Amino acid sequence: MEDEKFIKDTQILENRELNIWEALIPVFALIGMLAYNVYVYGDDSLGGSNQFILLLGGAIAAIVGLYNKVSFDTMIEEVANNIKSTTGAILILLMVGSLAGTWLVSGIIPTMIYYGLQILNPTIFLAATVIICAVISVATGSSWTTSATVGIALIGIADALGVSVGMTAGAILSGAYFGDKMSPLSDTTNLAPAMAGTDLFTHIRYMAYTTVPTITITLLIFVILGFTVETEGIADTGVILSSIDKAFNITPWLFIVPVLVIVLIIMKTSPLIALLLGTLLGAAAAVIFQPAILTEVSGYEYLSFEAAYVGIMNAITIDTSIVTDNEQLNDLFSSGGMAGMLGTIWLIICAMVFGGVMDAIGALATISRTLLQLFHTTFGLFASTVLSCITLNATASDQYLAIVVPGKMFAKAYRDKGLAPENLSRSLEDSGTVTSVHCAMEYLWSLPQRSPGGTGCLLFRLCDLQLSQPLYDAFLCGI
């Protein structure tokens, strides 16, 4: 029933007068403008300029539509339908932000990190690194944060043990990207099903078909490498563990909350309900286990009902940071709350404006019809999706756009082939999320010359590559 409602809400209109070249004018214009915008703004382009470029792309599509006798009211109506179809995804993103906030102030995320770091052993160091980064990335929903915080610490430990820094960086990226792709807290994991027309947890289950085999093979490789690598010294994580222990009340009881959320997911509970309950349980855990943290976050001198209320609401809605005596951990122990998700929501709305106008003028139907003529097989459709995502990443350097634009372009083609929308969402994330490359070849050739800052600098360079699959990461970063 939900799939039928999505198809009805996002029905792509036909316009037989529109030829393929006219339909592609807004697409080529959008890619060109995005490429120049990223060239000018760099990483800051996601702060708002990319969103306005999407609106400009919609304006160009509207001019093409007016030229082909499509009324402005029709375009606005289709834009409204498109935005309406993303309501669920937008609400989920807001709930993801709120859950991340309460899981931070309750100590759930720090507890996962604390116990994860204790499984380190020289022989299984590489495999353990994969597992630790995967767990932390699932908990935080961010591969970048995991790599740039705990990843830095693991690089330092690897250096002390005499383990290859390159192999360790590959293990960090492998675990971080696995966790990011499988985490319900990840913005891209929420964005892909929203564009394809499926729900979050169905998307995650489908992601397991490609992600679990690669991470399994990767773990086996790192286990084998662990027995062949000569190590020296011990894995000294005492400083990090001590910093976490000083800042939070660490207890295994906190694992009850994520376990209950996992149970709800397995029972196929609505994502909104599961995330809301996870947020409320995290808030209760914060009151019980982290009264000092709530007092600090609220700005009150002592814990009272009002202070607890303010602390929890701040964690849910705005930026929250827990300061420790370890600078590496401070970036990890921060959350944007619901406000942190507004940039992605803003992007979705602007993308839906572009997609809605493209729908209304018949451009997406024309592009979809041409693609089906060019790619007669299912494999060809999957391949064209992957190539489109990679092309957008190469030109716009934005994994969000690499998901939303091809997602809107290919949705009808997948339906016409009789494919479930989960196939599209999985293809979008397998190719759009993990191929958001920043001058990869330049970094590959210049890593030895561009790491004057030591192992930490080297890891940042490797993380910036954002290579495709965990297995590929393992081999490439292990060279």
Structural topology:
Elements lengths: L1 H8 L10 H22 L7 H19 L4 H14 L1 H19 L2 H10 L7 H16 L2 H6 L1 H12 L3 H18 L4 H10 L3 H29 L9 H10 L8 H11 L4 H19 L1 H8 L6 H13 L2 E2 L5 H4 L3 E2 L6 H19 L2 H12 L3 H19 L2 H18 L4 H13 L6 H7 L8 H9 L6 H8 L2
Antiparallel strand pairs: 1-2
Helix pairs in contact: 2-3, 2-20, 3-19, 4-19, 5-11, 5-15, 5-17, 6-7, 6-13, 7-10, 7-12, 9-10, 9-25, 10-12, 10-25, 10-26, 11-12, 11-22, 11-23, 12-23, 14-15, 16-17, 19-22, 20-22, 21-22, 21-23, 22-23
Give a written overview of the molecule.
This protein has 2 domains: 2-84 and 341-433, no CATH class; 90-335 and 468-477, no CATH class. The chain is 74% helix and 1% strand. It is built from 26 helices and 2 strands. Helix 2 (20-41) crosses helix 20. It is globular and about 70 Å long.
